[in-house]
Amino acid sequence: MRIGLFTDTFLPVVDGVGRVAVAYAETLPKLGHQVTVAAPLHDTGHRGGYAFELVDYSGFKVPTAPQYRTGTPSMDAHYRKRMDMIPLDIVHSHSPFASGREALRLSRQRGIPLVSTFHSKYYDDFLKITKSETIARAVVANIVRFYNKCDEVWAVSATSGQVLKEYGYPGEPVVMTNGTALRETSGKAIREAEERFGLGNSPVMLFVGQINWKKNILRILEAAALLKEEDPGFKLVLAGFGQDEKEIRKKAESLHLGSQLIMTGMITDTGVLDALYARARLFVFPSLYDTFSLVIREAAAMGTPSVVVCGSCAAENIQDGYNGFLCEDDSRSVYYAMSRAMKEPLLMKEVGENARKSLPVSWEEAVGRAAGRYEELVRSLPPKADGEA
């Protein structure tokens, strides 16, 4: 098949959606498909060696989040001329915004199916940006209208599909879970990470993701402050970057976590990230925002268990005490899990091994299922007339 992937975040990867889009773009060709990616231009550096075609359009920074790019593909004549020459059987959007609208345009123009994946809790994003419930609801209503125009909508988990329905989407999203890169690390890589980040022999409590309050990082900091009173001999590693980094660092200082906290900044080397996952005793992820937690599966692939909040999307498939730990949305509850990790390292290894066996799914398996659904849609959906919704 000839598949078009449309995404507002791609390379360089700055969030989970970008990682998913890249994984699809790299995995589908391995399964015998031709892939074209449409995304905002991030830089003009040399690009080569990809198994997919990248057709980018003029991009500019998002004012409220400068690590992101957006653009207007319909206004970029060079992009449209290139895209017009590329045949496609189906288009898959990973965003309901600029790239999603472009996917919708091509779907209508060419009479081919449009799939879109619901990745994020957009209401939370726009409420934080605008501080207005009215505006956030209006944006979400517009997003739902976009999904109503798609031939099929995918959710990355059952709980995230429920979120979309709560937004007002009247259909039944297809649950299409994400995969995980099933890699191994080495003792040498772990030792290098220990030296690079000054971990020493200390037990490590790890968080990986955007350094953003929406990830519920306050719970982690307050839990770490409680743990310090009991046993200060640990390191709290926050790996990633984001718009709230300065405020989070300031809060950590007010909680006297100076000797425990390590903020790594953005890590682009997956080998270094894998070493941190493997080195951690517990992966601490109390986020209520994420619709699917790639990082939990990545930690599990390295044999490290996670603590997540009961009822969150991240908690889907976690069995308390077997392949992870459940807590309440409460700093003391997170602390109890961290304290247990300090006191029971053998239990952490056992639960981490169960997580390794039960949680990760390879990208080949996950994307293979998606490709099978593409083929069904191409076969079953009648051709559309030009301009038909």
Describe the structure.
The model has no long low-confidence stretch (mean pLDDT 92). The chain has 389 residues and is of the alpha/beta class. Helices cover 42% and strands 17% of the residues. The protein has a seven-stranded parallel sheet, with helices on both faces. Helix 6 links the parallel strand 8 and strand 9. Helix 7 (187-197) packs across helix 10 (270-279). The longest helix is centred in the last third of the chain and has 18 residues, at 363-380.
Query: Main beta sheet, described?
Result: 7 strands, parallel
Order of helices and strands: EHEEEEHEHEHHEHEHEHEHEHEHEEHHH
Please work out how many helical segments DSSP would assign: 14
> What is the molecular shape?
globular
Average pLDDT taken over every residue: 92
Rg calculated over all Cα atoms: 21 Å
Helix content: 40-55%
SSE arrangement:
Layout: E1 2-6, H1 16-27, E2 34-40, E3 53-57, E4 59-62, E5 65-71, H2 77-84, E6 90-93, H3 98-110, E7 114-118, H4 122-130, H5 133-148, E8 152-155, H6 158-166, E9 174-175, H7 187-197, E10 204-208, H8 217-230, E11 235-239, H9 245-254, E12 261-265, H10 270-279, E13 282-284, H11 294-301, E14 306-309, E15 325-327, H12 331-343, H13 345-358, H14 363-380
Parallel strand pairs: 1-2, 1-6, 2-3, 6-7, 7-8, 8-9, 10-11, 10-13, 11-12, 13-14, 14-15
Antiparallel strand pairs: 4-5
Helix pairs in contact: 4-5, 7-10, 8-12, 11-13
